[in-house]
Design a protein that fits this description.
This protein is α/β, with parallel strands linked by helices. The chain is 40% helix and 16% strand.
C-alpha cells in the first residue's frame, strides 16, 4: 500500500483499500487523487472504460467529505442504474472504516418513497442517475444547495442518452462555489460545452490517448455477406470454446432475434435490451455475472454501466453508428491487465467504417478469416482433450465400478475406444459442420456480387426520380450523413442506391434517395435504433432545389461552416 500512501490517502481509507486487495494505483488514480486532495479544482479527465476511474474520484471524495455533517456534500451522476449501483458499492467499500459516512444510490426502477426517506435521514454522498435525481428535485426531496463536489461519471454516455436537459436542471440546483469533476472516454462537442458552461477553468487530464482503445484489446474484423452474419457469429463463438462475451446489436428487435437463435442452437445466451422490466434485467445480469450465461446479446443503451471485468470478447454483430460507441463497446474487454478481443462482423460495404474507426482509436484492425468447419471441429476436440487430461479423478468413488466398466469396454482397442468417446461427444457437432461452406467475402468484390451488376445499380437514368424521406433523429441524437449512407448501403440485394441531398437538423433529418427503393429504405430505418431512440421514417414533400446540398452523383456530404460536424 506504500504507493497509495504517497498519494496522500488517510489511514482509514487505506485500510479499506487493503482489504479489497488494492496494491498499486492505476495511471488515472495517480493523476487524479493527489490533485483532488491538494487543491479542490475543476477537472476534466479523459480516460477509457475500465481504467479505475471510480477509485480515482471516489477515494478523494470520501476523504474530503465531513461525516459529522449530515447534509449532502458530494454528488456523483451516472448514465445507468447498473453503473449507479456499482459506483455506490465501490465508494461504500472504500469508506468501510469511516464511521458516520452515508452513501445513497438513487435511480429509476426502484421505489422512490424509500429513496426519499433515506435522503431525509441525511446522506453525505448521493450517487444518482439524472432522470431520478431530477424527479427528486421536483418533489423537493433532494437538497443540493450545500454540495461541495459534483462528479460526472461517463459524461459522454449521459449526453448520448439524451440527458443534457436533465444535467442542466440539476446543476442549476447546485451552488456556484463547488468543485466539478468530469470523467469521459471521449470528448464530443456536448461534453466540451458542459465543461465550458459549468466549470471554472478546468484542468484537463488525458490518461492514454483521446478516443484510443484499451491497450490490451486486439481489434479484428470478419468480412461476410449480410445474410451470413449469424452463421459467421456461430463459427466465431464455436472457435473460442471458453468465450465469455457481449454481442452488441443495433436494435431491440435484432437483439431478440440473435439471442433467440443462439438459445435455439444450444448456447447459454440471453438478451438485454430496453423492453425488459427491471426485474428481468436484474435476473439476466445475475446469470451473466456468475457465468451461467456464456453470451449476452445487448443493445448499446442496455449495456451501458455494466460492470463485468473478465470478458474475453466483445462482438459487434453490427457496427454502431458512432465511433465513440465502438470505443465504449471494445473497452468492456481487456480490463484489469487481461487481454481481450473486439470483433466486428462487417459486409464489404462497411469496410470504409473500419478505416474510420482505425483513425480514431489509432489502432489497426486485423482482418481474420471465418474459420472453416474442419478448423472449428479440431479446435473443439483439442479443447475437450485438454479438459479430459485436467479433470480430477475420484479413484475411491470409481474403484467399485471399475471392473464392470472395464468388462463392458474390453472388446474395444485403445484407438477404437478413443474414436467412440469422440463420436459420443461430437457426432452432432461434426454433422453440423460437414461440408460447411466458406463464408468469407473477398474485399475486392462487394459482398461477392458481380461488379458490373453493382455498378449499373449506381448509374442513374436521365428520368430517374428521388423520394424525400424524413427521420425523427438529428444532430442531438448524434446522427451524421455517414451513418445514414452506411445504413442505406447495408440494404440487401439491391446494390448501391443513389442518394441525393442529406439535410440534418437538430432533432430531425431529411434525405433524398432513388425512388425505386422507397420500400426497402422505409423498412431498413423502421427497424433501427439510434442512441436508444427508436427511429421513425416517412415520405415527405421534396426539399426545394434552392436548398440542396448535393445531388446527382454521390459524393461526400459537406456541411456549411455553421454546421461543423462533431467528432465522428
Amino acid at each position: 500500500m506504500e504507493a497509495f500512501e504517497k498519494l496522500g490517502i488517510n489511514d482509514e481509507i487505506l485500510k479499506g483499500l487493503s482489504s479489497l486487495g488494492f496494491t498499486e494505483p492505476t495511471p488515472v488514480q495517480k493523476e487524479v487523487i493527489p490533485r483532488m486532495l491538494e487543491k479542490q479544482t475543476d477537472l476534466v479527465c479523459l480516460a477509457q472504460t475500465g481504467t479505475g476511474k471510480t477509485a480515482a474520484f471516489g477515494i478523494p471524495l470520501i476523504q474530503l467529505i465531513d461525516p459529522k455533517k449530515k447534509h449532502t456534500q458530494g454528488l456523483v451522476l451516472c448514465p445507468t442504474r447498473e453503473l449507479c449501483m456499482q459506483v455506490a458499492r465501490d465508494i461504500d467499500a472504500y469508506s468501510k472504516h469511516i464511521s458516520g459516512l452515508k452513501i445513497l444510490s438513487v435511480y429509476g426502477g426502484s421505489p422512490i418513497d424509500q429513496q426519499i426517506r433515506s435522503l431525509r435521514k441525511g446522506v453525505q454522498i448521493v450517487v444518482a442517475t439524472p432522470g431520478r435525481l431530477k424527479d427528486l428535485l421536483n418533489r423537493r426531496a433532494a437538497n443540493l444547495s450545500q454540495i461541495n463536489f459534483v462528479v460526472f461519471d461517463e459524461a459522454d454516455e449521459m449526453l448520448q442518452m439524451g440527458f443534457q436537459d436533465d444535467l442542466t436542471a440539476i446543476l442549476e440546483n447546485t451552488p456556484k462555489e463547488k468543485s466539478t469533476l468530469l470523467f469521459s472516454a471521449t470528448m464530443p462537442a456536448e461534453v466540451s460545452a458542459i465543461s465550458r458552461k459549468y466549470m471554472n477553468k478546468p484542468l484537463e487530464l488525458t490518461v492514454g490517448t483521446k478516443n484510443a482503445g484499451a491497450e490490451n484489446v486486439c481489434h479484428e474484423f470478419y468480412m461476410v455477406q449480410v445474410r451470413n452474419r449469424y452463421p459467421a457469429l456461430k463459427r466465431i463463438v464455436d472457435n473460442s470454446p471458453d468465450i465469455y462475451s457481449i454481442v452488441f446489436c443495433r436494435t431491440r428487435r435484432e437483439c431478440n432475434d440473435v439471442a433467440s437463435k443462439l438459445i435455439h442452437d444450444g448456447y447459454n445466451a440471453d438478451a438485454l435490451h430496453g423492453d425488459l422490466s427491471q426485474a428481468q434485467r436484474d435476473h439476466v445480469m445475475s446469470k451473466f455475472r456468475c457465468r451461467n450465461l456464456q453470451i449476452l446479446v445487448a443493445t448499446d443503451v442496455a449495456a451501458r454501466g455494466l460492470d463485468v471485468s473478465d470478458l474475453t470478447h466483445v462482438i459487434n454483430y453490427n457496427l454502431p453508428d458512432e465511433i465513440a460507441s465502438y470505443t465504449h463497446r471494445s473497452g468492456r474487454t481487456g480490463r484489469a491487465g487481461r487481454a481481450g478481443i473486439s470483433i466486428a462482423i462487417v459486409s464489404n460495404k462497411e469496410r470504409y467504417r473500419i478505416k474510420s474507426i482505425e483513425r480514431k482509436i489509432q489502432k489497426k484492425f486485423k482482418q481474420c478469416q471465418v474459420p472453416s468447419g474442419a478448423e472449428i471441429c479440431k479446435k473443439q476436440m483439442l479443447n475437450l482433450m485438454d479438459e479430459v487430461t485436467k479433470v480430477k479423478v475420484d479413484y475411491q468413488q470409481i474403484e467399485p465400478l471399475y471392473a464392470e466398466i472395464e468388462s463392458k469396454l474390453q472388446h474395444l482397442e485403445r484407438g477404437d475406444l478413443i474414436k467412440h468417446f469422440v463420436s459420443l461427444q461430437f457426432n452432432k457437432f461434426l454433422e453440423y459442420y460437414k461440408n460447411a461452406p466458406d463464408l468469407n467475402v473477398s474485399s475486392r468484390e462487394p459482398d461477392g456480387r458481380d461488379r458490373k451488376q453493382n455498378d449499373s445499380r449506381a448509374t442513374m437514368r436521365p428520368n430517374q426520380k428521388f423520394t424525400t424521406f424524413q427521420l425523427n433523429v438529428g444532430r442531438r441524437q448524434g446522427i451524421m450523413p455517414q451513418g445514414i449512407i452506411g445504413k442505406i448501403n447495408e440494404i440487401e440485394n439491391v446494390g448501391r442506391i443513389k442518394i441525393g441531398q442529406i439535410d440534418i437538423l437538430r432533432n430531425s433529418a431529411r434525405l433524398e434517395a432513388d425512388s425505386r427503393y422507397t420500400t426497402q429504405i422505409l423498412n431498413a430505418f423502421r427497424q433501427s435504433e439510434i442512441n436508444g431512440k427508436d427511429v421513425s421514417i416517412e415520405v415527405v414533400q421534396a426539399i426545394p432545389a434552392s436548398n440542396k446540398k448535393y445531388s446527382g452523383k454521390r459524393k461526400p456530404f459537406k456541411h456549411h461552416k455553421s454546421r461543423k460536424p462533431k467528432n465522428y
